[in-house]
Specification:
About 5% of the residues lie in helices and about 50% in strands. A seven-stranded antiparallel sheet has the order 1-22-19-24-17-14-13, with no helix packed on it. The chain has a single domain, classed as Sandwich (Jelly Rolls). The longest helix has 12 residues. The protein binds manganese (II) ion.
């Protein structure tokens, strides 16, 4: 086993608003230095770092919009998000929960702060990742996986040092509930200060950490809160030592080596497929959803 070298430690880029509910740092596809293939199968990563929302009777969020060709994975760390889509799914992503939505051939959805959270206000922190689909699954029917905190795989570390919550993949024999179309490892590490943990992930996978809370030493480099740690494809081992109580999102996946044509909410292989998606959207083929 050799160490997976750190390629870059990326500070959070200046935030922008998605609708009026999501103040996000766009780590992926990034500032031009991280290309659209660099973290394949993960295409986009929007990180809503911790922010306090004031109470309101009108839930903040993003109105009806389409997606085609990929999956949206939403992880709620603080606050609650409500979701409706034109395939008839409705859900609430509570604190600690994950929603894994396979848009595939296409749907309309809207994403809002959940009503009682909006009325109360409070701390809000979440991540949304766009997971690309291989060409042969881009036009599959839409699907929806509600991954509650309760049904995640949990690998407890000895001496109450923390827990590895497995969303997808397999950490030392503990499996995550998510069905994925390509091999993906996705975990939340919740580590007490002073805990050391070693991850073993395939060298050929694209791998990164996002420090959600606290700080850690990763392969002898300092990894502060809200930073994105990108690894090279040169080894298997990542050594993590929590400096404070820390929450760390682990993303690792086998690259999909296919062309990417990306436009707004569509992620396809060829431009002709983007044109088709726009035409299908304009002619109502993504279904109906009220705003
Ligand atoms: Mn969306």
């Amino acid at each position: 086993m050799t160490i997976k070298s750190i390629e870059r430690i990326i500070a959070p880029p200046p935030p922008h608003m998605v609708g009026d509910g999501f103040r996000v740092h766009g780590f992926l596809p990034g500032d031009g230095r991280l290309g659209k293939h660099r973290m394949s199968p993960f295409f986009m990563l929007d990180y809503a770092s911790l922010v306090e929302f004031s109470p309101t009777d009108t839930p903040r969020g993003v109105g009806v919009h389409p997606h085609r060709g990929f999956e949206t994975v939403t992880i709620a760390y603080k606050g609650r998000i409500a979701h409706h889509d034109s395939a008839g799914h409705h859900g609430i992503i509570g604190e600690g929960d994950v929603q894994w939505m396979t848009a595939a051939s296409g749907l309309l959805h809207k994403e809002y702060h959940e009503e009682s959270f909006s009325k109360q206000g409070g701390p809000f922190q979440m991540v949304q990742i766009w997971v690309n689909l291989p060409a042969k699954h881009k036009m599959d029917p839409p699907a929806y996986q509600e991954i509650t905190h309760e049904n995640m795989g949990k690998h407890r570390l000895p001496n109450e040092q923390g827990v590895v919550e497995v969303i997808a993949g397999n950490f030392q024999g503990t499996k995550g509930p998510a069905h994925t179309f390509t091999p993906i490892e996705m975990y939340n590490l919740k580590l007490k200060a002073g805990t050391n943990l070693t991850l073993n992930l395939p060298a050929a996978y694209n791998t990164a950490l996002l420090i959600i809370e606290g700080s850690a030493i990763v392969n002898s480099e300092k990894a502060p809160a809200d930073h994105f740690i990108l690894f090279q494809q040169d080894g298997e081992q990542i050594q993590i030592s929590a400096e404070q109580d820390a929450v760390i999102l682990v993303l690792s996946g086998e690259p999909i080596n296919e062309p990417i044509a990306a436009y707004g909410p569509f992620l396809m292989n060829q431009w002709s497929e983007i044109e088709q998606a726009i035409q299908d959207f304009n002619t109502g083929k993504f279904g109906v959803l009220e705003d």
